[in-house]
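To: structure subgroup
Subject: Chain for Friday's discussion

All,

I'm putting the inputs and outputs inline so they're searchable in the archive.
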Amino acid sequence: MPITMRADAPFDHMVVFAPANDPQLCVEPVTNTTDCFSAVGLREQAGGCVLQPGEQIEAASSWTPHRQ
């Protein structure tokens, strides 16, 4: 079944993890690329931010299944 995932900014990146020899699949929206704080070059495309104590980020995400 096809599924559409949507996420608000700043969740502009996605992590996909599929363990070897395991039928599970993990897909999640994230705010940054892997190792974003060591990114070289186009830093603004790597995402990520530093929150100060007490600061928060809020966003919504949704998964919508579609029947074929």
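Points worth raising on Friday:
The radius of gyration is 15 Å.
Residues 3-59 form one domain.

D.
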